[in-house]
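Hey L., structure's done. Input below.
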Amino acid sequence: MLQAMRRLPSPWMSFLAALAAALVLHAEVQAATASEMQPIRGFEIDRTEVTIAQFRRFVQATGTLTQAERAGGGSTFEAGWEQRKGWVWHSPYGKPGADGEPVAHVTHAEARAFCRWAGKRLPTDAEWGEAAYTERRSQPPAGFERGRTYRYPTGDSPQGANCLGDCGAVGTVAHAVSSRGRGHALAGSTRAGVNGLFEMGGNLWEWVDSGPGAEQRTRGGSWWYGAGPMQDSHVQGKPVDTAVIYIGFRCARDLPR
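Output:
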């Protein structure tokens, strides 16, 4: 077999080597995510928002060029939507972001593509809501009660989340540029909430699968808003081609039956 491979033309050898490297990387990503997910009830969900480092592996493996990159930059809302030159997934505020920052400037389709590549999918709207508000751990730590549904993803209070004004002081990235709020925090850096999940409330809105349509629901609020949008009753959607500084995502997958 090895001798046969050595006789292949060099372009074929390069292709096979690249294919093998991609398969190994994909397997490593799937293995790593097993410890990064929280079982809920029939499914499991990422404990943190997808990071720049994770999205970079996807881009390197697939050659993806995001919509924001093709357009020259994503957007923020000021007096209206404004494009920000150079603000893309790897440079959320126009300068290179750290590996542990949550990825932003990603459309709904790009979020779905990442999750599919990682062997997962976007959570449904109902799954996201259950994971964010209803405690499903068999032995949750003090402050959380199994089976109880909370007002916020952080529990009874929004304290500890990264939101505008209502959530207390949390650390955010130093290079954020905004006319409002302090920008996002590193993924997994704020206090763990319901089901041990991080940043389900505040930080970045998160794309979910809310069914067919040109708009999809975004969940959890963001650093741009106060605590109100962190509640389950808050309904917010965006066109599926939206790529902005305060929308990210996390992935889910079914648990074996």
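DSSP finds six helices and nine strands in the chain. Residues 124 and 209 are 5 Å apart (CA to CA).

-- N.
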